[in-house]
Write a structure and sequence with these properties.
The protein is α+β, with helices and mostly antiparallel strands. Helices cover 42% and strands 17% of the residues. The chain starts with 6 loop residues before the first helix and ends with a helix.
Length: 412
């Protein structure tokens, strides 16, 4: 497997498929409309007489309206730094964990909007569990709004709303996997990089920030187009952070790129990506490889997977000292390629050797810029195979058939 898995064929599809199975996919379900009048009285008050009922018919209208107003309060609290308001509707047993969540959100720096979506369990009277779309914008990131799902349980007791659980749907929707769900955390901000570590790891964060800035310069020397301007590097000791859904065994790869999913219905291109480190240290070459895999979240995931992985492998090799480059290349391409008849399909496992050799052949014959321009075109639009082949000939002079012949010829 590669250092960082491709975004669509290896993990993107399982994420969507898993969420479709459980029925909570944010791409497909419009959050329940709310007619709660979120005036200052409603967003900060505690009396249910200030709440306007939801007319969705999904749940008890008093419960629905109270939840909507409570979720609005949470967003206001994060924006204004009001921890008391954030915890106002939380039962005492849950407050320590929610207080840590609030401090983490503030440390990362974000604006948050919570929207109630469909009820997850049968709602009997004024008790219910809901999928909630947490929509966030990272301050200073220059990224669009992203979203994740959480599951909250509520009950009304004596005319008062209480959040009783924030983990009711962890298994179903993969909530509590974001960097702010593990704490306490520390956040280091430098120009064009943000590093999130566990508290007390300032030296580690500083080292990772410097390495990321250096790797970004190496990537831009190869890639003339736009990257994610502010990489967010997550280096927490907890192996559950930003895992796949369903999760795979932790530690299989030194680093992975995970998408910040867009909230809009039908939106395929993510808002941005996290670079998640799965081991204590990365070499400069490994970090360069990881940053190249931010391209799909910046441009879209329509490029052939062999091209995305091949570009990352190529960038990694360029970051190695010249003496190590040939040995690493031989290690990746030691398998027999002489019998290659076609390039891998997107629904097949990524073949590192084929990917690297194919990109090397394109760059050797056409140059870096035509190859990156081809990548940019197909990444954004997700063309079919015929269109991809036509564009590859237009930008590089290679058809797939000719490229396969060239890869076979290089296998000797």
């Amino acid at each position: 497997m590669g250092l960082v898995r491709g975004l669509r064929g290896v993990w993107w599809t399982p994420v969507v498929a898993a969420l479709v199975v459980v029925g909570g996919l944010w791409l497909a379900i419009t959050p329940a409309a709310s007619t709660a009048r979120l005036t200052s009285e409603a967003t900060r008050g505690v009396s249910l007489t200030t709440m306007w009922p939801s007319r969705t018919g999904e749940v008890d209208p008093v419960l629905a309206s109270a939840v909507d107003a409570s979720l609005a309060r949470r967003g206001v609290a994060v924006e204004t730094g009001n921890e008391t308001l954030f915890l106002q509707d939380v039962v005492p047993a849950l407050r320590p964990r929610q207080a840590q969540l609030f401090r983490n959100l503030r440390a990362i720096g974000m604006s948050v909007v919570y929207r109630r979506a469909e009820p997850w369990e049968n709602v009997l009277g004024q008790v219910g569990t809901f999928r909630v779309s947490m929509r966030f914008t990272l301050t200073g990131s220059r990224l669009d709004q992203a979203a994740t799902d959480v599951g909250y349980s509520y009950v009304i007791r004596k005319g008062r709303l209480w959040m009783t659980s924030d983990r009711a749907l962890d298994d179903e929707i993969g909530s509590n996997r974001q960097p702010w769900d593990f704490g306490p955390i520390a956040v280091l901000r430098k120009p064009n990089v943000v590093v999130i570590t566990n508290q007390g790891q300032q030296a580690k964060a500083q080292r990772l920030a410097d390495e990321t800035v250096a790797a970004a310069k190496r990537v831009r020397a190869i890639w003339p187009g736009q990257l994610q301007i502010v990489p967010y590097v997550v280096a927490l000791r907890e192996p559950q952070v930003l895992t796949e859904i369903p999760p795979t065994l932790p530690g299989a790869e030194p680093a992975q790129v995970r998408a910040m999913l867009s909230p809009g219905i039908g939106q395929i291109q993510p808002a941005g990506g996290w670079v998640v480190l799965r081991q204590t240290t990365l070499t400069p070459a490994q970090m360069t490889h990881a940053l190249m895999h931010l391209l799909p979240v910046r441009l879209g995931d329509g490029a052939p997977h062999w091209l995305a992985e091949g570009m990352a492998q190529y960038a990694e090799l360029q970051a190695l000292p010249r003496a190590e480059r040939a040995a690493k290349r031989d290690e990746l391409t030691k398998q027999q390629l002489a019998q290659l008849t076609r390039l891998p399909n997107d629904d097949e496992p990524v073949d590192e050797a084929v990917s690297l050799r194919a990109v090397e052949q394109l760059i050797a014959k056409a140059g870096v810029r035509p190859v990156t321009e081809y990548y940019r075109q197909v990444a954004r639009r997700g063309y079919n195979d015929a269109a991809r082949d036509r564009l590859m000939q237009e930008y590089t002079g290679f058809s797939e058939e000719r490229l396969v012949e060239s890869v076979r010829g290089s296998a000797g």
